[in-house]
Amino acid sequence: MGSYLVRRFVLALLVLCLALLILFLLIYAVPGDPATIALGPRASEAQKLLFRERMGLDDPLVVQAVRYIGLMLRGDMGTDILSQRPVADLVLAALPRTVLLALVGLGWAVALGLPLGVVSALNPNSWIDRVVGVISTSVVALPSFLMAIYGLMLFSVTLGWFPAIGAGEPGDFGDQVRHLVLPALAVGIAWVGYIARLVRVSMLEVLGENHVKTYRAFGVSNLRIALRFVLPIAVVPVLSVLGVGMGNLLSGAVLVEVVFSRPGLGSLAYDAVVSRNFPVLFGSVVVTTALYVTANFLTDTAIALLDPRIVEEG
Amino acid sequence: MTEFRINRRDLMRRLGAGGLALSASSLLGAGAVISQEARVLRIRNDGDIRRLDPATRGGWYDETVMFAIFSGLVRYAPGEKWAIELDAAESLDDSDPLNIAFTLRPGIMFTGGYGELTAEDVKFSYERFLDPAVDAVYGSDWGALAEVEVTGKYSGIIHLSRPFAPLFTSTMPHASGLILSKAALEGSGEAVIGTDPLACSGPYQLAEWRPREMIRLTRNPGWTGPVPYYDEIQLLPIADLTSAETAFDAGDLDVTQIAVNSIPVRNPAADKLVVKPALAYTWLGMNVENETLSDIRVRRAIQQAIDVQEVVEATFGGAVTPAFGLVPPPLLGARDADLYPFDPAATKALLAEAGAEGLTLTLSFGADPDLMIAAQVIQAQLAAVGITLQIRSMDSATLTAQQQDNAGGSYKEVELFFTTFTTAPDPSWVTEWFTCSQVGVWNFQRTCSEDWDAKNAAAAEETDPAVRNQMYIELQDALEETGAYVFLYHGVNAWVAGPKVTPAYSADAQWALLRDFTGA
């Protein structure tokens, strides 16, 4: 188990480094002058030159990359070129909100998708199974930003149940929950369908195995078999997909945060792209990538714990 | 249509009226508005604060906050006209255009224990625009300043090295005229202010800033001027107008600016809809250094192939009117007719003369739904005279980067393009982008004439409004003569407010003047 986790950890680090390299090259290939955007049209050429020099934007790409990696290793993500605040402060302030959004989105997906999958698997080829199938396929095809907009129009504007913007007052738990319901639903809705379909298929496979037939022969009820003996095994592939899904949830959070004006990592990265605020963009993308890699690593660990055969296979 | 023809007599009358109002409300004191529960205003800001320094500020998002937390000698008055009124000054004498004497109201206190606002603070605040350490982006606002002479604790004289017409239109009442605490800034060890204002001299103070989430202003306890209605103002940075309008409809905002295309669907009375002509100008530019467009006959042909009235009508319905120049109509120097209006017959003749029939051109612009409609209308109009127009809607920063690619030369590939600029309320800030020194910087038409530049510089120093008016008209005539400009529209700014709010905006409704908001 130990060597398996070490191998996974090293692989995660390699993935992170490669992703950062690609991102760095991509970000600096984008046309647009940060100095012009930061200082505005009234700035003189001399002021822009000074700004680029101060921010190190006029150095060759390699120099910038090496300097940035050096800073990152010291825990410094650079300085926001617009407000001159440390990028780490901005990212750390936004990070918990996005993680919470993604996790609650995932929670929505599991809370709705898991029961649907179980019901579907326990009633294969029935009308219930077909209805669940239609619902699952429909929500999988629904982009999160579209769900965000419709959710906003229905539940905020028309019904007035939930707030339309923001993340809630700090320290007011109830207010923060109210601000989280709609964005999280928008982020997680597509995964309801994925999880329902995966759970169904996986459960049907396990339900056909010999040990399940043995439980049946001993007169154990179908529901108890499903929940106690089948679901824990059937959920393993779902966990694996959720690891990858975390990345989708984080990317889905970008547009959802913009639509709901939630100050998270996604909206931070979006604003940074528009304003060519490279240090903030890079900082937010680095952290998002790290989150994604971490989620995958944790998923691998969880799967290894649930199914030791995977460790033995390598 | 609103006229903006400020002269000295008007100015002093407005200053006097403002001063009276100020004195009267000062006498009322803070106790006059004590209420049982806090009055809170929630309003959209078009972005988060970046730099609250008058010399290096960002955009409107900073200025809206700055106008609430800092005082200037004078300020823009809310209303339909570009009027100014006294703020921290109790008197101002501009009878000599080179020496402006002022006297401050005693008793205005900075927050943070930085003491009383004095003439030394005025001197410090204005002269720092010329300090290389500050590296003021808005340095040209005080480019004519020789010095501020302090003649007493509350009095001083602003000495100019040359006449500077925008002083009372776009320098002193604007954010460049706001007064900082000398003690606070010098004590900070920094040359400029960031997002911490250090010490506030206006009716509000910055109580809390949650980056990208909320800017909370509360009353400045040391403020002795007119007492604002709201105890607290929450500015929510929302860049997207549609998101802000949705938040308004959901009851999360009391006031917000809305998109022009939302105007027809709002209820003017219920939504307290306010629509004012913007200090903006949108035009179709032609790159004279592009091979195809280097022939003035081709440019003129395109100018006369475009029916601006139809373009504007199709894009905005009746909400916006066509432009006849760059200078927006409320300002001195606005034109009322084009030299080369729509004339498809002339276009065909010019194209034939230039041997340029069957042209294919590309129109580039930053992605914007309004501009996309305008582009499609122009595409149809050019097709009618045999020109094929390809539309290239793209990220605006990427387009600007190409237009500014002077070293790489890719700017030459840009042919036609849309540009929208906004301006401070003085025509000098409209025309300054079209000089030779701006070629490849912000002058993407790349038209250049030293005579034009000299006349433009002279217009900024001309203090006779009638002469100045004519100079700016002629400057725009000359630009149109190059064939590289088709003036499209100036646009409008529109706002909606909730039933319990009586809003107050600048004459162009670009800024919400927060100190002047009251209840219904």
Identify the notable features of this structure and list them briefly.
heterodimer; A: 314 residues; mainly alpha; MetI-like fold; 2 domains; 13 helices; B: 520 residues; alpha+beta; D-Maltodextrin-Binding Protein, domain 2; Dipeptide-binding Protein, domain 3; 5-stranded mixed β-sheet; 20 strands; disordered N terminus
Question: What does this molecule look like?
Answer:
The complex is a heterodimer of chains A (314) and B (520). The relative contact order of chain A is 0.15. Chain A folds into two domains: 72 residues; 221 residues, MetI-like (MetI-like fold, Orthogonal Bundle). Chain A contains 13 helices and no strands. With 314 residues, chain A is mostly helical. In chain A, helix 1 packs antiparallel against helix 12, helix 6 packs across helix 8 and helix 8 packs across helix 10. Chain B is an alpha+beta fold and 520 residues long. Helices cover 28% and strands 21% of the residues of chain B. In chain B, the strands form six sheets. In chain B, strands 15-14-16-13-17 form a five-stranded mixed beta sheet, sandwiched between helices. In chain B, strands 1-10-9-8 form a four-stranded mixed beta sheet, with helices on one face. In chain B, strands 4-5-7-6 form a four-stranded antiparallel beta sheet. Chain B is globular and about 75 Å long. Chain B has two domains: 251 residues, Periplasmic binding protein-like II (D-Maltodextrin-Binding Protein, domain 2), CATH 3.40.190; 211 residues, Dipeptide-binding Protein, domain 3 (Roll). The N terminus of chain B is likely disordered. Chains A and B meet through helix 2, helix 3, helix 5, helix 7 and helix 11 of A and helix 6 and helix 11 of B.
In short:
The complex is a heterodimer of chains A (314) and B (520). Chain A is mainly α and 314 residues long.
Q: Which fold name fills CATH's third level, the topology of the largest domain in chain B?
A: D-Maltodextrin-Binding Protein, domain 2
| Largest interface, Cβ cutoff 8 Å | A-B, 42 and 41 residues
Assign the structural class of chain B, choosing from mainly alpha, mainly beta, alpha/beta, alpha+beta, or little secondary structure.
alpha+beta
Rg over C-alpha atoms of chain A, rounded to the nearest angstrom? 23 Å
Name of the CATH architecture of the largest domain in chain A: Orthogonal Bundle
N-to-C span of chain A: 9 Å
CATH superfamily of the largest domain in chain A: MetI-like
CATH fold assignment of the largest domain in chain A = MetI-like fold
Q: Low-confidence runs of chain B (pLDDT<50, min 5 residues)?
A: 1-35
The domain count of chain A comes to: 2
| Number of alpha- plus pi-helical segments of chain A | 13
Average pLDDT level of chain B? 91
Shape type of chain B: globular
- The level 1 CATH classification of the largest domain in chain A is Mainly Alpha
Strand order of the largest sheet of chain B: 15-14-16-13-17
Report the portion of residues of chain B in β strands.
15-25%
Q: Name the CATH superfamily classification of the largest domain in chain B.
A: Periplasmic binding protein-like II
Taken as a percent bin, the fraction of beta residues of chain A is under 5%
